[in-house]
Amino acid sequence: MATALIWNDDPLNYDFGPAHPLKPIRVKLTVALIRACGLTEPESVLTLPRATFGDDDVLRLHTEAYVDAVRGCSLRPRQSASGFGLGPGDNPTFAGMHEASLQVCGASTAAAEAVWTGTVAHAFNPAGGLHHAMPDRASGFCVYNDPAAAIDWLLRHGAKRVAYVDVDTHHGDGVQSFFYDDPRVLTISLHESGRYLFPGTGFCDEVGSGDAVGTSLNVPLPPATPGSVYLETFDAVVPPALDAFDPDVLVTQLGCDTHVTDPLAHLALVTDDYLALAERLHRLAHDHAGGRWVALGGGGYQIVSVVPRAWTIYFAELTGEHVPLEVPWEWQQLAEEAVGERSVATFLDGPVQLAPERLAGIRGQAMASVSELKRAAFDLLAAR
To answer: Which whole number is the average pLDDT over 170-197?
Structure first.
């Protein structure tokens, strides 16, 4: 079945500046590594451009006052709009911010369109996954919410039920907010607990509202959660939730800031775990959504050593191929020239080792979250 990489070989302008952790070079290096591994060479793999996404489209999602503020800061980047989350800190303003944010949304809606129309079974926008943006403000490096844009496109073009699974280390609060009262959208987020990490939300009692009660599922995890525990919680929550919800299409946010070396968070996954997650998500797409899988990027702040490897692993699974044992030497040289940082030479890291008593304590906390979530929401979801 065909797969699409949504990518334009032009400058990636969603750029908060050289001192900001969300650097566009991480996405460019990802695409370069995907190509260096030969994953775009089969005839079944298409490279498709982003779709046009204009002011009318963004106003379906975000308030007019907020979009006006983004436009203003985009034209006059030295000003801020603190009431809309724009200015010094997480979301510094930059010239062309409005247009660059529209482009990210256009790429994610292109992925949704390619999958829903049957052009491909799976599509990946590595520049997407800006899941913190709220209807009326920027948040957490995210100006406009492209996962919400993709889901909205799917709903407007015939999808009856969309399942969104977010494996970023931060709670997918923006996407949850957009669809918290919409029974057509199931949002599932596995993340480091908001007790320890931004955005401070994503607890088990956040289960949706109104007709959508039971369609918002959150699994808060303790710091230092390793892949073995993460995958156990995933298996306990995601497959049965999809069984109950019966989606038409699966949308995923594939943030890799869950990695043990990520500088902005505290989970302890490795690239081996991304391989296992990719296999699970691929199987779930075919078991529950007719194979339809819209995959988006997300967080990840180890620009060379983690993000390109992680997302190349996911893209290989999307295409039905495998990554090589070693990261291609020519790509390692390219990355070092671009960033001045050496890459890890192999795709897989090997497991994280924790003392047995610490592992048992972490697992106990994670399983307590699973039990609390099931008590809070699973009966409601099953009754839908």
So the answer is: 98
Kindly indicate the confidence band of residue 1, based on its pLDDT and cuts at 50, 70 and 90.
confident
Q: What is the pLDDT of residue 210?
A: 96
Contact between 191 and 220 under an 8 Å Cβ cutoff? The reply is yes
What is the per-residue pLDDT for 384?
A: 80
Alpha carbons 153 and 66: distance in angstroms, whole number: 21
As a CATH number, domain 3-51+99-382 is: 3.40.800.20
**Nearest of 156, 151, 221 to residue 186 by alpha carbon:** 151
188-206 average pLDDT score: 98
CA distance 28 to 35: 11
Whether 197 contacts 169, CB under 8 Å: yes
Pairing of strands 249-253, 45-48: unpaired
Q: Domain segments of the chain: what residues?
A: 3-51+99-382
**What is the percentage of the chain residues whose pLDDT exceeds 90?**
97
Query: Would you name the residues annotated as active-site residues?
Result: 132
